[in-house]
Design brief:
Elements: H1 6-19, H2 25-40, E1 47-49, H3 51-58, H4 63-75, E2 79-82, E3 91-97, E4 110-111, H5 120-131, H6 139-148, H7 153-165, E5 169-170, E6 174-175, H8 179-213
Antiparallel strand pairs: 1-3, 2-3, 3-4, 5-6
Helix pairs in contact: 2-3, 2-4, 6-7
Protein name: Transcriptional regulator
Length: about 230
Amino acid sequence: MPTINYIRHLNAVFLQFSKDGKLNPTHISLYMAFFQLWNHNRFPVKFHVNREEVMNLSKIGSKSTYHRCVKELDNYKYLIYKPSHNPFKGSQIKMLIFGTTSGQALDLAIPNQGQALVPLYKHNKQIENINKLDQPKNQKIVIAFFKSQNWPENEAKKFFNHYQGIGWKVGGKTKIVNWQATAQNWILKSEEIKTNNQQSQNKDNLNSRESGNLHTVKNKNYNQPL
């Protein structure tokens, strides 16, 4: 029996979801709730579940919907469901394999006898590290990020050129951990400067108007009516 890799498993099962016209979003949500518990239990061959916990994870509010969908997942060969009818024991779930380490995707799943090669928390950590890069690969990526924040291309170039020139370090000393967070701070600072400049300009205009109202001339004609 091949060793199970949960990443290949998910890729294969999502492919099967896309081809299966019998499924609706509730089926998929319920399946992913079972998968999360399967992962939490370190991918055993079989495990017991608590209905209330699974309903909360899958955001299913109806018991009848839960029972109907779990039975249909069993009928559609995504898992094997054995109800216990015992509230203190919980029903038994056996997840079925949809991928192998050789890359083969199985439409008709087989019972799981192996262990996932990469725990889920490590995979999430890898994704998190990808999203938190110390510096962008090029200027185009920075421009795209600034445009997503509704900021002009010129401001993105100023940001990129500034930090490129100082080796992507804050204050020229501390290495940047997440350039997107630094870009967000750049945008916030720019907004603050823009607001302060606008307030200063409004204050100067007000002072100018008040000064004009108080202006007098030496040769004023006091015979003119007020």
